């Protein structure tokens, strides 16, 4: 390895690691910002939150890697240009592509690592995150009684307290509605009570003092019911809190989702869906064949009746005595045909949508890997052109090009989902557009272009300014007095 390669790599590794973890942190925060309403108030322990952070971090790595490569490459070559090291390297006769080579090798390796990550680790992370997110979203809020409002998250009960003491356990003016689907609800009213949650968080115990319990016995079918009012000095009521706990859903519930599959599994699934897709016409022909058998007799009808003697309407063929009966049978057959077509249409659209989504997932494992290489071809020449280091100007350009990449990638994915473009075009839309831009920037960087130098545009404007003034003067003289 040449000293130049070591210099370039040393200047690249530091910014890359820093920008990668910063980008990862921002993307993880974005996820929790989107799902903040589903996480707050659930009483989640630190272990569950830690698992969610790890799984979310793994799922956003494919997006963080290209952005880190883009920003760090701009910063690396921008720092070298700002300190005139690029000038020294070029004055030694070393072309741009030569001192881009060490980072190019790193970008290729990162693309390979990104593909392996997308193919083997990302499906597992999506599976675990999908299961955990499902459990958290379906978990009811943690137990929290509030003064003057009903708490209804315990199935079958509605609890209201008038006042809570400072110890947060002693309650006043307690009302408990117990749902009874046979007759009216049972009611417990107490002037005072002490609330306690069991150590295993599975049960809630109410020690009620000085109150009444109202119950009605009987059935809706019998008008003779029995109303019972029971007074008590002390009454113990236990509630089951198992419905509030975080459940553990099996991974098998999500394992067949297209986001949870590797390239090999996606290929097998796509082949299976395409075979079903191709056989759909045969299936439809078989189902509709008995109802459109008359189409095979059209030629025979022409020969028997004669093309010149073709009847004007069905009344000329079908006698009046059986016309009504025949019309009903025709309408019945048409109704069956319409129903069959609608059912098959829904099935066809569902299978087509599933096929498109699987193709999106298959192509995305490659496009997000190649994105590291594509954005490097933009970032490296861009940094050598702007010749600015730090996080100011490089961050602005990095954000602009990454937003362009992100929007093009999402537009292409949307086009494929809506069946506007095939997957081979839609999922590679960002690559097809950004590669020519990268080639253009490399060409400009190799020829020491001043594409982003404001002094260049200022000097160009100064040269054409006299021409504009003469043109404006001539136009004023040409106007009639």
UniProtKB/TrEMBL annotation:
List the InterPro entries. Answer: LptG/LptF_permease
* A matching Pfam family: LptF_LptG
* Superkingdom of the source species: Bacteria
- Mitochondrion as UniProt keyword: no
* Compartments where located: Cell membrane
Its membrane topology is listed as:
Multi-pass membrane protein
Q: What is this protein called?
A: Permease
What residue intervals traverse the membrane? 12-33, 53-78, 99-122, 366-386, 393-411, 423-443
Just give the chief location class: membrane
Q: Does the keyword Transmembrane apply?
A: yes
Keywords from the named record: Cell membrane, Membrane, Transmembrane, Transmembrane helix
């Amino acid at each position: 390895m040449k000293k130049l390669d070591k210099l370039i790599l040393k200047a690249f590794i530091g910014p890359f690691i820093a920008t990668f973890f910063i980008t990862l942190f921002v993307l993880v925060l974005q996820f929790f910002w989107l799902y903040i309403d589903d996480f707050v108030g659930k009483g989640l322990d630190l272990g569950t939150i830690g698992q969610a952070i790890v799984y979310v971090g793994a799922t956003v790595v494919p997006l963080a890697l290209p952005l880190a490569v883009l920003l760090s490459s701009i910063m690396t070559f921008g720092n070298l240009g700002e300190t005139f090291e690029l000038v020294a390297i070029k004055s030694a006769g070393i072309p741009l592509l030569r001192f881009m080579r060490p980072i190019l090798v790193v970008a290729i390796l990162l693309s390979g690592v990104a593909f392996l990550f997308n193919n083997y680790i990302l499906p597992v992370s999506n599976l675990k995150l999908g299961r955990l997110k499902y459990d958290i979203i379906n978990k009811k809020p943690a137990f929290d009684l509030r003064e003057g409002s009903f708490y209804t998250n315990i199935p079958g009960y509605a609890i209201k307290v008038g006042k809570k003491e400072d110890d947060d356990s002693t309650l006043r003016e307690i009302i408990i509605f117990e749902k009874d689907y046979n007759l009216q609800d049972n009611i417990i009213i107490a002037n005072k009570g002490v609330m306690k949650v069991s150590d295993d968080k599975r049960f809630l115990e109410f020690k009620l003092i000085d109150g009444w319990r109202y119950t009605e016995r009987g059935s809706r079918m019998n008008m003779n019911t029995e109303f019972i009012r029971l007074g008590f000095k002390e009454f113990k009521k236990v509630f089951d809190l198992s419905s509030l706990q975080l459940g553990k859903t099996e991974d098998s519930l999500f394992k067949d989702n297209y986001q949870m599959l590797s390239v090999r599994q996606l290929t097998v699934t796509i082949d299976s869906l395409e075979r079903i897709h191709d056989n759909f016409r045969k299936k439809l022909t078989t189902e509709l064949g008995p109802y459109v058998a008359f189409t095979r007799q059209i030629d025979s009808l022409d020969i028997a009746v004669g093309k010149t003697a073709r009847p004007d309407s069905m009344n000329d063929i079908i006698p009046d005595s059986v016309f009504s009966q025949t019309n009903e049978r025709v309408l019945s057959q048409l109704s069956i045909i319409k129903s069959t077509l609608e059912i098959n249409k829904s099935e066809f659209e569902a299978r087509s949508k599933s096929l498109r989504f699987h193709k999106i997932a298959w192509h995305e494992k490659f496009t997000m890997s190649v994105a590291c290489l594509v954005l490097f071809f933009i970032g490296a020449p861009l940094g050598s052109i702007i010749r600015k280091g730090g996080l100011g100007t490089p961050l602005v350009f990095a954000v602009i090009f990454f937003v362009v990449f992100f929007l093009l990638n999402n537009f292409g994915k949307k086009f494929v989902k809506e069946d506007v473009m095939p997957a081979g075009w839609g999922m590679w839309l960002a690559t097809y557009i950004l590669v020519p831009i990268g080639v253009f920037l490399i060409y400009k960087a190799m020829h020491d272009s001043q594409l982003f130098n404001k002094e260049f545009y200022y000097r160009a404007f100064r040269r054409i300014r006299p021409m504009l003034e003469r043109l404006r003067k001539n136009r004023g003289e040409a106007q009639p007095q």
